[in-house]
Amino acid sequence: MYARDHALIATPIGPMKIEGDACSVLRVTIGAEGPPAMGATAPVRAAAEQLLAYFAGDLKTFDLPLAPVTSPRGRVLRDGLVALGYGETASYGELARRLQSGPRAIGQLCARNPLPVIILCHRVTAAGGALGSYSAGDGPATKQWLLDHEQRHR
Q1: CA–CA separation, 34 vs 24, rounded Å?
Q2: Annotation marks residue 121 as catalytic
């Protein structure tokens, strides 16, 4: 097991703590506390830099080594979520149909997402385009901010 590293960056949706090791980014927490830090390992530093570029409107796609998903089905679902394009949204049901899954599975994937913003759960909405819930930051207010941000920088 590699030693854990972290970065703490200021963003428009609050301070973000990025945790990882020498191999991958493991977790992102919105609303973390502590002194600013950029991290020491390459994955954590890259995540901090890419998140800052995303919030500046300069990055539309993340390219980071992420913690592996433990099941093949979980990998398919996460990859399908990541495939939603910048500024694009899909309902839980629509994404479930695309991935031959159920809306509840998509909801659980989003609710348990350890990498908010990097794994783009904010792009998944309720039926009919309603905002729906969001498990990171300040919940739906954070989700709305992220969606608005992507529309402004599209």
Answers
A1: 22
A2: yes
- Active site residue: 9, 25, 77, 121, which one? 121
Q: Counting runs of H as helices and runs of E as strands, what totals does the chain give?
A: 5, 5
Residue 3 main-chain phi, psi, to 5 deg: -70, 145
Contact yes or no for 92/106 (Cβ under 8 A): yes
Question: Which pLDDT does position 129 carry in this prediction?
Answer: 85
Which tokens hold the place of 89? Answer: 């949204």
Residues in the chain: 154
pLDDT tens track for 2-57: 689 999 999 999 999 999 999 999 999 999 999 999 999 999 999 999 999 999 99
Q: What is the 3-state secondary structure (H, E, C) of 64-77?
A: CCECCCCCHHHHHH
Q: Set out the domains of the chain in order of their start, with CATH numbers.
A: 5-55 (3.30.160), 72-152 (1.10.10.10)
What letters, b where the CB count within 10 A reaches 16 and e where it falls short, cover 104-119? ebbbebbeebebbbbb
